[in-house]
Design brief:
Protein name: Sulfite dehydrogenase
Strand content: 25-35%
CATH topology of the largest domain: Sulfite Oxidase, Chain A, domain 2
CATH class of the largest domain: Alpha Beta
Largest sheet: 5 strands, mixed
Structural class: alpha+beta
CATH architecture of the largest domain: Alpha-Beta Complex
Cofactor: Mo-molybdopterin
Oligomer: single chain
Number of strands: 23
GO molecular function, one term: sulfite oxidase activity
Shape: globular
Distance between the termini: 36 Å
Pfam families: Mo-co_dimer (PF03404), Oxidored_molyb (PF00174), TAT_signal (PF10518)
Keywords: Metal-binding, Molybdenum, Oxidoreductase, Signal
CATH superfamily of the largest domain: Oxidoreductase, molybdopterin-binding domain
Number of helices: 9
Strand order of the largest sheet: 4-3-12-7-8
């Protein structure tokens, strides 16, 4: 059937009103019938708006007040050591506004001024150094877009479908443009021992959140960052300085960075032994599993973003990412993985950054089991939950990158389900 026929109306026909009767889309049809929002001058066009100094720091308009971070109170005993979630279901593109980017704290977000900030480099170095914030500003800097994902993102889904919303299943992630100094530059300034194999980093907060990082990674792409999306870091994201460890679990992105120790062995801290390890079905836990493997999620339609516009053209969209490189392809299934269609990437994938994908389709009220499956430039293909369980069982917490399923019902509502 040719494009635009009565049996297969085109997107343009739907949106211009030519297919209103058959598809239930009344946008242009209402305008022809005398929609006052089109035919009459509205109150917002009858007077003056606010002046340029009404909000010295711009804020979202009141109609978007629902686009906020949310927590799940029963997840932790206290919000001081807890997490909230990025509203990924309500965003498009790839860059996460700082005000929406998820938080994870181990002892609460602290206030530390630039004047009071100090960063020490010690251990196996020729000259132990202490930098002020002003010192750091004098070093050559770089700017890169990277995603930061908590290792526990999607962790509650190991045992089955749990939370009903992309924000809660996959919202422990953000994607921001970070500006900072390559860690390599500061290590070279201190004259690090080239035979050293590790660095140990810790924060200035009460938890310190110390983590060991292999020297190979430290010298590769790790940043000592002081800007995000062009402005100063927010308090909850480590103001004034944090570590950025591209592609690796968010727990290693130490906030309020205060010390970097060059060492010949890992420290074996609490956060890398008792936590952030992968427990297998036999009870053995493996550690040093830092990389966040390829993953994807459909953000719309989804439980928090149901189909409201009726039958006709539908844009299925979501996010994909990989800690091993760039996303090369995303496939979408409408039938729970039986058949797949290749989605359109908004732009070519970038290393260790979120990629937005779209599938432009038509929906006429049929039920769907929506899934996305990501592939990265290494050839890695995002696994099903069953495939992951074969290796790790159901009692794991971290690094769950399985394919997610939304059951879209005939009324457009969506629900988190598991397809076996």
């Amino acid at each position: 059937m040719s494009k635009g026929s009565n049996n297969n109306p085109s997107r343009r026909q739907f949106l211009s009103g030519a297919a209103v009767a058959g598809a239930g889309i009344a946008v242009a049809g209402a305008a022809r019938a005398g929609d006052p929002l089109i035919t009459e001058v509205q109150q917002w066009a009858r007077g003056l708006g606010e002046g340029v100094d009404a909000t010295p720091y711009g804020l979202p308009i009141r109609f978007e007040t629902d686009v906020v971070r949310r927590n799940v109170p029963w997840l932790t005993a206290d919000p001081i050591s807890s997490i909230n979630f990025t509203p990924i279901h309500a965003l498009d593109g790839t860059i996460t506004p700082q005000g929406c980017a998820f938080e994870r704290h181990h002892s609460g977000a602290i206030e530390l001024s630039k004047d009071d900030y100090r960063l020490m480099i010690n251990g196996l170095v020729d000259t132990p150094l202490v930098f002020t914030y002003a010192d750091l500003e004098r070093f050559p800097r770089q700017t890169h877009v990277y995603f930061c994902e908590c290792a526990a993102n999607t962790g509650m889904e190991w045992a089955g479908a749990q939370l009903n919303g992309a924000q809660f299943t996959h919202g422990m992630i953000h994607n921001m443009e970070y500006t900072g100094i390559p860690l390599r530059t500061l290590l070279e300034e201190a004259g690090f021992d080239t035979s050293a194999k590790w660095v140990y980093v810790e924060g200035a907060d009460a938890s310190s959140n110390g983590r060991s990082i292999p020297m190979e990674k430290a010298l590769d792409d790790v940043l000592v960052a002081f800007k995000a999306n062009g402005e100063a870091l927010r308090k909850e994201h480590g103001y004034p300085v944090r570590l950025v460890v591209p592609g690796w679990e968010g727990n290693m992105w130490v906030k309020w960075l205060r010390r970097i120790e060059v060492a010949d062995a890992p420290v074996e801290s609490r956060e890398e032994t008792s936590k952030y390890t992968d427990t297998l079905a036999n009870g053995v836990s493996r550690k040093w599993t830092w990389v966040m493997d390829a993953k994807s999620i459909i953000t719309s339609p989804s439980p928090q973003a149901p189909i409201r516009h009726g039958h006709g053209p539908l844009v299925i969209t979501g996010l994909a990412w990989s800690g091993r490189g760039a996303i090369s392809r995303v496939d979408i299934s409408k039938d729970g993985g039986k058949t797949w269609e290749t989605a359109r990437l908004a732009k070519p994938g970038e290393k260790m950054a979120l990629t937005r994908f779209y599938l432009d389709t038509t929906w006429n009220g049929e039920e769907m089991l929506l899934q996305a499956r990501a592939m990265d430039e290494t050839g890695y293909v995002q696994p099903t939950k069953a495939q992951l369980r074969e290796v790790r069982g159901e009692n794991s917490i971290y690094h769950n990158n399985c394919i997610q399923t939304w059951w879209v019902q005939s009324n457009g509502e969506a629900e988190n389900v598991e397809v076996s």
